[in-house]
Design goal:
Organism: Posidoniimonas polymericola
CATH class of the largest domain: Alpha Beta
Distance between the termini: 82 Å
Number of helices: 7
Keywords: Signal
Shape: elongated
Strand content: 15-25%
Largest sheet: 4 strands, mixed
Order of helices and strands: HHEHHEHEEHH
Strand order of the largest sheet: 2-1-3-4
Oligomer: single chain
InterPro entries: ArsF-like
Protein name: Thioredoxin domain-containing protein
CATH architecture of the largest domain: 3-Layer(aba) Sandwich
Radius of gyration: 23 Å
Length: 154
């Protein structure tokens, strides 16, 4: 074999091996670390208040997030401190979060309440009225707090 053919064969093998490694990284089975990241930490028996947003965040969307956070902080400080209630902000347009769109019927930024039992999702509500109440801060707060109290059984 000539030196030219040897170098060409070596380069082809290197390129093929590189492609195999790259493809392998993309389709590899999840590791324990991946599973831990994908496993959502839910309260044993409590409530998760999600604010779901997309990549584009308008002024109204930011108000919904802020008002919902204020409502939760004001009414459920003890539950938050005891981890009986969790506040989570999630971008539903990110590939790793796309499952939320179908799970919670998300069509736009929204607040979703998820009641848990034994670290499993037991019941959920999409608070889609937040859009109609965003110009009524008091009504918005009452709506979020009353729905959360109902889900917590308070």
């Amino acid at each position: 074999m000539t030196a030219k053919k040897l170098v060409a064969s070596g380069l082809l093998l290197f390129a093929a091996a590189s492609v195999v490694v790259l493809v392998g990284r993309e389709v590899r089975a999840p590791t324990a670390d991946d599973a831990a990241r994908m496993t959502e930490q839910l309260p044993d028996n409590g409530l998760v208040v999600y604010y779901f947003h997309g990549d584009t965040r308008c002024h109204t969307c930011r108000n919904i997030e802020g008002y919902a956070y204020e409502a939760v902080q004001a009414a459920f400080a003890d539950e938050l401190a005891e981890d009986q209630l969790q506040w989570k902000v999630v971008n539903y347009e990110q590939p790793e979060n796309s499952h939320f769109v179908t799970e919670y019927d998300i069509v736009a930024p929204t607040v979703v309440l998820v009641r848990t039992a034994n670290r499993e999702r037991a019941e959920w509500r999409n608070l889609d009225r937040v859009w109609e109440l965003v110009d009524d801060h008091g009504g918005f707060t009452e709506y979020v707090q009353s729905e959360a109290r109902s889900m917590l059984g308070l």
